Amino acid sequence: MPTSYQAPMAGDKAKQASASQSVESKANVEAGKIKYLLDRKGNDVITINQSETIAAAVQVLHDKRIGALIVVDDMGALAGILSERDIVRKLAETPGQTLPQTVAENMTKNVVTCSEDDTLIEVLRRMSEGKFRHMPVVNGGMLAGMVTIGDVVNSRLNELEFEALQLKQLIVG
């Protein structure tokens, strides 16, 4: 311990916080939420009606360069999700007969969703445990967006980078 150090005493006045310790410089709690991710990514959602064919779904996946589609019913409500993985499984089960089948016959019906208020860590954990890569975001019963495991991991890495920078600033002053 340096000889100039003196432990705080009961009557000492509180020192002013340095700039690196100010409230403004602390990590933004909202940055760890799905809403923050959607605000940056955008909340466009590519959907397909459950009555469409797998051939139509494959074309949309190809054209939009995405890995999953939100499936909606005739009223526009969330009915399921159709991923590349769902299609590949069906191709293996029914070779040469898959493309004319309907999306409803092949989609995942029990869709795990998240809300805008969920944290990145909660969503990442649910995706890892469920072994899926796409999760619809539902807010107030309405579809608010779609996040992928890549979106969540990238956002979380940016958050950790920011936290590391804040810690460096605390240490350096």
TrEMBL record:
The keyword Transmembrane does not apply. PROSITE patterns: CBS. Signal peptide: none annotated. Residues 1-24 are annotated as: Disordered. Keywords: CBS domain. It holds the Pfam family CBS. Residues 38-98, 107-162 form the CBS domain. The keyword Hydrolase does not apply. SUPFAM superfamilies: CBS-domain pair. InterPro entries: CBS_dom, CBS_dom_sf, CBSX3_CBS_dom, Diverse_CBS-Domain. This is CBS domain-containing protein.
